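forwarding from the other thread:

> can someone predict this with guanosine-5'-diphosphate?

sure thing
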Amino acid sequence: MIDKKNTSKTSISKVRSFRKKTLAIDSYIEGILKNDKATLGKAITLIESSINEHIEKAKTVIEKCLSKENNSIRIGITGVPGVGKSTFIEALGKNLTATGKKVAVLAVDPTSSVSKGSILGDKTRMQELAKDPNAFIRPSPSGETLGGVGRKTRETIILCEAAGYDIILIETVGVGQSETLVHSMVDFFLVLKLAGAGGELQGIKRGIIEMADALVINKADEDNIKQSKLAQIEFQRALHLYPPKINGWTPKVLLTSAIHKMGINEVWKMIKQYLTQTKQNGFFAENRKKQNEYWVLQTIDNQLKQEFYQNKSVKKMIANVLQEVHENKISPFNAAEKLLLLSKKELK
Ligand code: GDP
């Protein structure tokens, strides 16, 4: 049986020790700007905390980091577990750090809040990159709703950029809405795939083709080469059937063997080509602007919802009102209005 007394004591002491360990705001900023990884890590922990005092402190740290100019590129990478995401990110990351770039790898893992553990949280992943002084790897915030993970990841991007990371790789798994979420915070969205046994398009989630700036067929090696080339042709053909993207870019289909570090340079070349094109036609800046607007509205949505459902009168009445709907005593619309009105009354 769980000893409640002890558990709460432990968590209180954990909170206390973390509280003690938080730094002064200026120390966070100074450490981040110097790219001191330990301080950056601590600042991200501050962002992830749900203690009010930390939330307030984190807000100031983020605001101060926002004003720092940077030329970063944010790249989203998705694919089912086992497709080779961490092998690919490690290969791409090492290639980039070898040319003097600084690479941060973040994860958005909707399964990290489930007690069974996360898909992307395995500590043995990307060992080489983890040792690289020019790379910074941070697992997904856990114990959060997907919306919460999204917000925290966005804020973490800001800190990493202030710390001088040029390339931010954001990894996710194709679970629930996580791909849409990551798509809404990146400049380039890359989908990793495996060649299947024909009928490639059937195995792809709806909407993902519209989001993808590139499909990369990984494990195009050994016995898999022929099938991968066939898959490439099939995807290329399929992509032509889609209307042109507003960014003027035609999504590419490339082959890689992440484990043998083959095709990685070509992927980077393609991303650079995309950046040149979308910076020239203005899409890059426009997209970031739109993404910021989206996040403002999204945050308002979340906050309003949270306030509504936490409202005492709403909590007390919601079951009764729903019952009235079940009994056809009140229409769903009137029920909603009644509850909204209740929530406003208590606020006054
Ligand atoms: P993730 O779950 O998407 O992060 O996938 P991992 O990077 O952990 O890779 C899953 C497995 O596929 C591992 O055993 C890798 O060694 C293997 N793998 C990754 N990339 C390749 C590749 O390009 N070719 C082959 N043959 N195996 C690969």
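The first strand starts at residue 73 and ends at 78. thats all i got for now
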